[in-house]
Amino acid sequence: MIFNPDIHHRHSIRLKDYDYSQAGAYFVTLCAWQRECLFGDFVDGKMRLNELGQVVESVWCGLIRHFANLDLDQHVIMPNHFHGILQINDTANNDNVGAKQGSSALPGFDVDSGKGEAGETLASPLQNLLHGTVSGSFAAAVQNFKSVSTRKINKIRQNLGCPVWQRNYYERVIRNDAELERAREYIINNPLKWKLDKENPANQQQPT
């Protein structure tokens, strides 16, 4: 399966029974609540973060202080969404590009269409604990990022309890170095495509 960010950043392709706590690299996309442009805007062709966008930047970069097994790769903050690559490390083996796939991960799952939405459960069903996600897992890192950034942003807005992110997020398991490079290129080039991006409010179809 060839990594295609134009498809995969729009749909969750959460793999049934896949262990999202295992070592590997992951591509994640989060969208702002109701696609509102909360985090800044483009000025002279460059993304300029506002105060809320700077919070998102700070919280993302700060994840490594809270997750000893986590490395951060490329990321980009857009006006109303976020793309990033993070890597869960196996302390016994640092060669982790390409998350290992369980034998039951792919059969019956349409990876090309991305069918299978990430719902309220943030981790693989096999890895859920009774009262939360697995410590140190991909899901735990994303959950921390969302909750901490939401709390800080709402403190600035003086609007506690207001959603910042869509409840669902979208993820892709990066399986090898070639996919990693394509994901990096997509993130780096994402700002250049904002005028054509479907997430750009200017491109949203107006009701008739």
Written description of the protein model:
- 25% of the residues lie in helices and 18% in strands.
- The radius of gyration is 17 Å and the shape is globular.
- The chain is built from 4 helices and 6 strands, in the order H-E-E-E-H-E-E-H-E-H.
- Strand 2 and strand 3 form a beta hairpin.
- By secondary structure, it is an alpha+beta fold.
- The protein has a domain of 133 residues: Alpha-Beta Plaits, CATH 3.30.70.1290.
- The strands form 2 sheets. Strands 4-5-1-6 form a 4-stranded antiparallel β-sheet, sandwiched between helices.
- Helix 2 runs antiparallel to helix 3.
Architecture blueprint of SSEs:
Layout: H1 5-8, E1 24-31, E2 40-43, E3 46-49, H2 51-66, E4 70-77, E5 81-88, H3 138-157, E6 170-174, H4 177-189
Antiparallel strand pairs: 1-5, 1-6, 2-3, 4-5
Helix pairs in contact: 2-3
